[in-house]
Amino acid sequence: MRVKFWQKTLAALLVVGVLPIAFVNAVSIQGTRDRLTELGVTNIRERAVSTANAIDSYLQGPLGDVVLVSKLPAVIAYAQNVNDPDLRRAAREVLAAASARSVNYESIAIVSIDGTISAASITTDEGTNVRFRDYFLNARAGLSYISDPSYSVITNKPALFFSAPIATTSGLVVGVARMRANLSGIWDLVEADSGSVGVGSHGFLVDDYGIRLAVSETKGHRAQAESLIYKPIAAIDPEVAKKLAADKRFGQKTPDQLVLDPLPPLKDAIDRQADSATLAYNSGSAEQRAVAARMHTKPWTYTLAVPLATYTSSADDSTVSVALAAAVGILLAAIVSLLLTRSIVGPLRRLAGQAQLMSSGTVDIETAAFEDVKGDDVTHEVATAFDRLGNALRYYAATRGEAPAGDLR
Fold this sequence. Notes:
With 409 residues, the chain is an alpha+beta fold. It has helices spanning 5-70, 73-80, 85-99, 134-140, 184-191, 225-228, 238-246, 264-272, 309-360, 377-399, and strands at 105-112, 117-120, 145-146, 150-151, 158-167, 173-181, 202-206, 212-215, 276-283, 286-294, 301-307. It folds into three domains: 5-13 and 314-408, no CATH class; 35-59 and 200-308, Beta-Lactamase; 71-182, Beta-Lactamase (2-Layer Sandwich). Strands 1, 2, 3, 4, 5 and 6 form a six-stranded antiparallel sheet that branches. A five-stranded antiparallel sheet has the order 8-7-11-10-9. Strand 4 and strand 5 (158-167) form a beta hairpin.
């Protein structure tokens, strides 16, 4: 296929003018976008680590309080003799005083060595057997313990449980001090990250099994909190599921009834036990950048995520502007090439047409003229050359081949 002159002109204008500018701008915008992303990830990491540390610090408070309770003389005395009403009364008083230290403390209790709550700051808790709970089993073994959020068998609501062994001076464990705390303290910290590092930023806390314990979306929607948490990021191992079911972690639900909300990059970071990890994933149609920070008090991972467009929107807007400018440049180049080639090619075609007519004998050689064709300097020179050629032909025709005069050459 023959390439037309105007197409060649357009290609030249694009190669020399539009394309280099578009390329330089595209490279510059991508560089800006990368720097904005890097800056955004730095901000996300600082905030994620800060919130993870804040949750760590928060957990130490209730744990320290329950350890303190376990060492109180009234508590130790009662744990050794749970049938003494006077000792029970004294124990209830110190338990109630300890429970009043924070609005997040729902109940503090003494659990006898057989797993039965024998005295509590809320007397309705008494008589409940919790021997199957991890917090009881670990404390009875001599360890201070913080549970994962679990449904309380008493309130049937999610709660955190803190426990510590009650031991005699000889080190014999005679009972367990147990605290039930609501999740408001943790939820407050996670919810505070909603929009903290940009529009659309949100945080969520998962345990070492990848089950969501807190999400910033509960902000202003605490009534729907139970439908937003307890969503695993990956399928739960069958053996782990049995353990969680035995602990009644989810109340009346079993692990297989939980709604799976997969997030493979985070699951990989948890499996690697990385102190922090940068994640990239899609949520709906929005690309996300996130940083997962591992906690120390519990093997939990706090993740803060932000839509990438929050940081790169200015560069993205520039991309649109450059694309529009390139489109306008291409349009202008096309117009210029058409106008330019028309001013050159049109007159040349007319000259060629007249020359064709003259060569075919359609036009009398004696009357044929080219200089009346208007055009630019090049066209004028071509027309003059054709006129000189016509004069030479007329001379040859008149003289039957004698050399033309000098002014006809």
